[in-house]
Every structure is written in structure tokens, then in C-alpha cells.
Description:
The protein is an alpha+beta fold. The protein folds into two domains: 7-206, no CATH class; 219-352, Nucleotidyltransferase, domain 5, CATH 3.30.420. It is built from eleven helices and twelve strands. The strands form two sheets. It has a seven-stranded mixed beta sheet with strand order 5-4-3-2-1-6-7. The radius of gyration is 25 Å and the shape is elongated.
Amino acid sequence: MHAQPSxxxxxxxxxxxxxxxxxxxxxxxxxxxxxxxxxxPYYVSIVSNAFAAYxxxxxxxxxxxxxxxxxxxxxxxxxxxxxxxxxxxxxxxxDLDELETEDRKTLTxxxxxxxxxxxxxxxKKQYHYPWYIEESDRSxxxxxxEALVYAKEYFGRYGKTKQSDSLIKWxxxxxxxxSDKKEYVPCLERDEKGxxxxxxxxxxxxxxxxxxxxxFTNEERQLHFKRMKAQPGKILYYITGxxxxxxxxxxxxxxxxxxxxxxxxxxxxxxxxLSMVEDYESEHPKFxxxxxxxxxxxxxxxxxxxxxKRTLPLLEKIGPQMGVMxxxxxxxxxxxxxxxEMFAELFEPHEHGPHCDHDHDHDH
Length: 364
């Protein structure tokens, strides 16, 4: 049983990491799995002056979605992939002035001196702004950096001494062969002697974003909407996504990127409703409630065209339950334009600068 690492341990591990020049040996695509203190895997990607340790299944899903993203994705969806990442971050900077006051205090308290680059550490929770680390994050970061320094020495024995070297010799030694369907990542886990190294299959196809689905549980309410007469030929565009600017929420100390839902009538070119929630996982029923209220107020549509990766999963069950066709929306410029006009209207006032004291009136 290992004692909890101190702040001094964390910064000593960071100094050893920095001095080992790991970006010379491992490229961004050389994923290394490190098992954290609680048994959760971190998938580490190293770049110059930083590394990201993607946490668990959510972290790996986010990393793979970003790595394999399609250039044809709508712009606002592509931007959202960055916000979907869940990872521990270590960023090394040579400019002490770049450190925030909190980072300077912690660095001084550690008593560890750095010759060149100094580190700052953050945890990036999904759809949250990167924030200061907690004690459990400190333990995992210390372990990860010690494991990576060990990985340099270990894989050096198999001829991996620079980025362009592969891990083929190591896999050959283990009698393993990669293929189109099977990719291995090294997995390091702390043991009594230091670290044990095994090969783990990268299960990229078993991961993915899973979004909530809505459906009626109240039969009377379902029948009410089922019996409601649909307006002939009437369609609705329903767009969901993540806002690009973080806001201070009420559910978490970390600033959050809220989820929005926008209901748009393409026939009259009207935005009928705009709604936001802090935590989509628990608050998505609010979106559905407002959509049903819209039907009560304006009449039921024949079809809903879904935009944004959350929308089809949210509505594909509840739509047919009330006799509304739900389809994947065909990409079009008007939808992108609507989303970016909304972003501009919501956030433009803040572009006057941090000391702006103008009043801004908006009737959202």
C-alpha cells in the first residue's frame, strides 16, 4: 500500500518528467495506458511541453472521436469535440508570468526548484473548463509521470528511443501482432517492484458517446399528444449543442459549457424557442417539456429534423409515440448560420473587454 503523494512528490515527479525529454521519444499518437490509484485507466498522449491523460472510457471516447473526426462535420459539432474531452493535463511553461497565482503558491509550497520549464496542472471534466486539481488528481498525476519516465527506460530496451521508432520489437517479444482489427497499447501498472508492463487491446469500437433518450411513461399524456392533429406538411428543425463559452454554474465549482436546444420553424424562418441546461444528462427532460409546450401552443408538427448529435437519440422514441416523424436533418448552411448567430448574440457583449461597464439588454 503506497502513501498518498504530497505536493512535493508531485513536483519532483514533474521535474523528473521534464528532464527525461519524453516528447523526443513518444509522439502524440503513441498512446500509453497508465492504471490510476483507484484502478481507472488513463490513456496518455504526449506533445511538446504538455501531456493529456484521458480518463477512463469517457476520456478514451473523447480522444478517439477527436482523432477520427470528419472534416465534413458541421463547424459547431467539430468545436464541441474539444469541449467533450475528459483528461488530466500537465502543461510546462518557461515563462513564470504565465502561471496563475494559485499555481505559483503551490509551486513555492512544494520546495522543488526547476531549471527551465515549470508545470501547471489541471483537470478537464467533460463539457467543463479545465480547473484546478484535487487530491485524487494529484495522486494520479504523480503516478502517471513516474510511469512515463519508467516507460522511456523500458521501451528504450526495445529500440524505442525516438518518435519515429515503433513498438514492433516489444510486441514481437510478447508474440503479438497488430492488424486492421487489433491495435495494442502499452499498459503500465504500479507493483511492488515499480511498474509492470502489459499490452492492452485498444477497444476503440466498444466506446462512443451515449446520449439520453426520452419517452412517455404516462399513457394518458402520450395519448393526448398522439390524438393531437398534426399540421399538414409542417416541419420543425430542432438543434442541440454545446455553447462555446463557459459560465459559472450552480451544480459544480468548475465553470461549465451549457447545452442549448433551439427550435426553429424553417417555413416562417422563426426561432420558436431557445433553452439551456447546465447538465444535459440530468436536465434533458426540460428540453422535452418545452418542446411539448410548443406543440400545445402552436400545434403539432408532422416531422422533426434533428441537428446535433444529442437530438436524434433524445427524440427518436418519443416522436413516434406521439405520431411525429423524427429524422436526421440534412446538413445545411441555414442551421450553421442560426447557431453562430445565437452564439454571437449571447456572447458578443463580453467582447467589450474585462472592464466593460455598459448595460446590455437582451430579451432571450
